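Obj: model holo form, ligand = magnesium ion.
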Amino acid sequence: MTSLPSQPPSSAPAHSAATPAAPAPTVDAARLRAIAHVALDMDGTIYKGGTLFDCTLPFLQRLRTLGIGYTFLTNNPSKSTADYLAHLRKMGLSASADQLYTSAQATIDHLRAAHPTARRLFVLGTPSMLSQFRDAGFEFTVDSADDEPDAVVVGFDTTLTYARLCRAAWWISRGKLYLATNPDRVCPTDQPTVLVDCGALCALLQTATGRAPDITLGKPDPTMLSGILAHHRLQPHQCAMVGDRVYTDIMMAHRAGALGVLVLTGEATAQDAAVAPQPPHLVLPSLAEFGDLLAAAQSSAAASPR
Ligand SMILES: [Mg+2]
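Output (holo structure tokens):
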């Protein structure tokens, strides 16, 4: 895990000043012209520390002008779609519910598609996450050996209690369908604490029960992207996944067959991209340059003779 202190302003990625150290991968215009939808990671890609990057709103406006749709996605299931939209609105970005896709929604979509008879769940999750499942028509079993669920769902439960953890372990040990919303072991924070995330809870439950989740949604599982593709009736080559992490955002793009675009406004460096087993299709200083490439690809098509 790389953990770097805040970079001095002079080395922060700027739109035109920063140049990736490694030879930049390129994508031909035809591939870019096929892009009809852009899936955007959030932290490190469109904002950092609760502040939108200067290029974010102009980039989204550009996508709208080009007729390209977009969805924001996050592995964090602890906030419902409504709570996330309010969070984005506070930063000055208005989006609709169908433009946001969380790992909780991916879990709901997976349950509906692969296990349509699973309606009653025992869930370790925040009230906000539970509200999302309730709105999707699921019911919750209580903490009792007499109230048998169809499946256990483990999320990033910041309201976790010992009794409910034990009840989850009980149903997992009884062989119930077991889903995890996201693989993250910790949630990044600038506070003096460690935010124990879903992956660490699942490791604890595996120690207690001997079972790992039957499926773990969230990046890099391609279900996150295939859910978005299904919502918009798109093929993988029509989608670009833009993010700041090689081992989640870009790996998911590869697994889903989408274009993987790494921006250097967050965690990964150009060097990280260069040594990745599955490198990004594009490495760019920020979203702004991706907007430039998409616009150039469309205008080159308009200029070329038919
Ligand atoms: Mg990120």
